[in-house]
């Protein structure tokens, strides 16, 4: 038994994660983060964690929120492009730092572009997305064409 769908095995715990996800998204919106940026953060965290299920899900969600194919195409190398605003760059760098648990923290994202509320919101988005990635990968969520 290599894969067990942990969400189905313990649905109450899964629902708690879903509630935490909703709270993190609400905090992000309240902090003034655009829906496209919220999806970019989720997608970038999923890329770093290698979660195919969440990459596909949040690519689709980003497109539905109005994101462009060009920006999604360069997201893995966002820092080399001129597609992203100062706020988006800071949020993506922060999400990467939270995901990778850089020790000591690089704080290269701390350009002043994000408010303390936004720093907290992006951090929570990255933490929760990392948890979702682990649920999907551990459970063996299928990603077929």
From TrEMBL:
Occurrences of domain Carboxymuconolactone decarboxylase-like (ranges): 20-97
SUPFAM superfamilies xrefs: AhpD-like
Domain of life: Bacteria
Record field: transmembrane: none
Protein name, entry field: Carboxymuconolactone decarboxylase family protein
């Amino acid at each position: 038994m290599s894969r067990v769908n942990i969400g189905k095995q313990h649905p109450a715990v899964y629902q708690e994660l879903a509630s935490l996800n909703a709270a993190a998204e609400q905090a992000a919106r309240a902090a003034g983060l655009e829906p496209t940026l919220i999806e970019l953060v989720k997608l970038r965290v999923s890329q770093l964690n290698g979660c195919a299920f969440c990459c596909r899900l949040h690519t689709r969600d980003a497109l539905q929120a109005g994101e462009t194919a060009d920006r999604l195409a360069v997201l893995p190398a966002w820092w080399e492009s001129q597609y992203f605003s100062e706020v988006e760059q800071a949020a993506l760098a922060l999400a990467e730092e939270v995901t990778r648990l850089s020790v000591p923290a690089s704080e290269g994202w701390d350009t002043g572009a994000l408010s303390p509320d936004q720093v907290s919101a992006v951090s929570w988005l990255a933490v929760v997305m990392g948890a979702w990635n682990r649920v999907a990968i551990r459970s063996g969520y299928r990603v077929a064409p």
